[in-house]
From TrEMBL:
UniProt keywords, alphabetically: ATP-binding, Ligase, Nucleotide-binding, Purine biosynthesis
A Pfam match: SAICAR_synt
Top-level taxonomy: Bacteria, Pseudomonadati, Verrucomicrobiota, Verrucomicrobiia, Verrucomicrobiales
Organism in which the protein naturally occurs: Prosthecobacter vanneervenii
Annotated protein name in UniProt: Phosphoribosylaminoimidazole-succinocarboxamide synthase
Lineage top rank: taxon: Bacteria
Length: 436
């Protein structure tokens, strides 16, 4: 077992200086005198369609930070994995598949919790880094272990190119260069549904068999068992990769690679079990992992925008999906500002054709009046999104009774429906999100 340098116990936020990385939704800072650690500051900014930060959700910076701290703290607790074990044992599924999930990583986590990169949250007043439970003064600053991020160099190959992952096989400590997507169900925009719909009838049967389905795939339906897919993480574009290629890219042994796949599914179940107690359905989420010699750790952000949580509401006799994640903002722009959304897509197509950055093309086109300027979001709608993330934060931090939060989440969904109804846009919302 490796022995990382001792983690800091206090942090003077006034001495952080400038961020070493400024992102659309978080900033990263070096920790003075502790090079093996990073401070993550969440922001209230939101980003959709790759346009950058184009709206702010009040309080979302703190909600995100608290969710992250509380969820990572939960992953570190054996009790979380006892609940996951019970959930897996009580879910109907193939017996051999269940046995696979219950052996290996889960057995270790039942004893000592999961290993993660998370250290704790900084108390906004005292600067103490609180490891479990919330600080007396919660802040937007979490401290995590720092792991090397390696980008595979591009090599030419007879007029084409490949990415060289050799360095991952020669290193003992790094972030695994993959994103693990775990799916508990099929959403309307998911890549597996698009693939399925493009297949011939016989190919559909084969794909169903591959995914362990006993019936045709249906949109907004839960799968009989969770499935996972993998994408590249540090290439210029995220790329879907086969399990065989992912193993070779990872630099891990086949046993350790299997371990990370099981961790992704089990971690998904930990989030699922938490959300279900507040009445939310988890459809999919993404994980990343780091390796530190023989230890495998959960890393990266986790908040309401990292997973797809929804409820169903009966609206005008139809079953409507309500989104408790960034999808609600995407739908808002598409439905309330369709001309702007059309301009975004035109700019993306032009940028791809010309081989220049999309934002550059969009900005120039907006300056010329070719496409509409980025619209200001209705404050009423932003308030509803702030309410959603605050309720999810209250739940993960166990601030209130789950049944009360469940009722408030449903009321917020109903208020979102009324927002569209009052503007004569409910038919468009139903078209986008009604099932059947």
């Amino acid at each position: 077992m490796s022995h990382p340098a001792p983690a800091p116990t206090h942090l003077d936020l006034s001495k952080l200086g400038q961020p070493v990385y400024r992102g659309s939704v978080q900033n990263l800072y070096a920790v003075p005198d502790h090079p093996g650690f990073v401070v993550c500051e969440t922001t209230p900014a939101g980003s959709v369609f790759d346009v950058g930060s184009i709206f702010n959700i009040e309080g979302n910076d703190l909600n995100r930070a608290i969710f992250r701290h509380a969820m990572y703290s939960r992953l570190g607790q054996p009790e979380t994995w006892q609940r996951v074990k019970a959930a897996i044992e009580n879910t109907p599924m193939d017996a051999a598949w269940r046995k696979e999930l219950l052996t290996g990583p889960l057995e270790l986590m039942l004893e000592r919790g999961a290993a993660t990169h998370h250290i704790g949250m900084v108390d906004a007043v005292t600067g103490e880094i609180v490891r479990s439970g919330l600080p007396a003064n919660p802040s937007c600053y979490n401290v995590v272990r720092r792991f090397p991020v390696m980008h595979p160099p591009q090599r030419t190959l007879l007029g084409t190119h490949v990415f060289d992952y050799a360095q991952f096989h020669q290193s003992a400590t790094y972030v695994v260069p993959l994103e693990y997507i775990v799916r508990f169900g099929v959403t309307s925009g998911s890549s597996i549904l698009k693939k399925y719909q493009s297949l011939s009838e016989s190919a559909k049967r084969s794909y169903e068999q591959e995914l362990g389905l006993s019936k045709p795939m249906g949109v907004w339906e839960m799968l009989e068992r969770p499935i996972y897919d993998l994408t590249s993480k540090y290439e210029p574009e995220d790329r879907a990769v086969s399990k065989q290629e992912a193993l070779m890219m990872s630099g891990l042994s086949s046993d350790d690679f299997l371990h990370t796949v099981k961790l992704a599914i089990l971690g998904g179940w930990a989030v699922r079990e938490l959300l279900e107690s507040a009445g939310l359905l988890l459809w999919d989420l993404k994980w990343e992992f780091a390796v530190d010699r023989e230890e495998l750790l959960f890393v990266d952000t986790i908040d309401a925008d990292s997973f797809r949580g929804t409820t169903f509401l009966d609206v005008d006799g139809r079953k409507l999906v309500i989104h408790y994640n960034k999808q609600a903002m995407r739908d808002y722009y598409r439905i309330v500002h369709p001309e702007w959304y059309a301009g975004i897509n035109e700019a993306k197509a032009q940028a791809q054709k010309a081989g220049v950055p999309f934002k550059q093309v969009l900005k120039a086109g907006q300056a010329e009046g070719k496409w509409p300027q980025t619209p200001v979001v209705d404050i009423e709608f932003l308030d509803l999104q702030a309410r959603k993330t605050a309720l999810i934060r209250e739940h993960v931090a166990a601030e209130r009774d789950a049944a009360a939060i469940r009722s408030d989440l449903e009321a917020t969904g109903q208020a979102e429906v009324e927002f569209y109804r009052q503007r004569g846009l409910l038919p468009a919302l139903l078209q986008a999100n009604a099932v059947g």
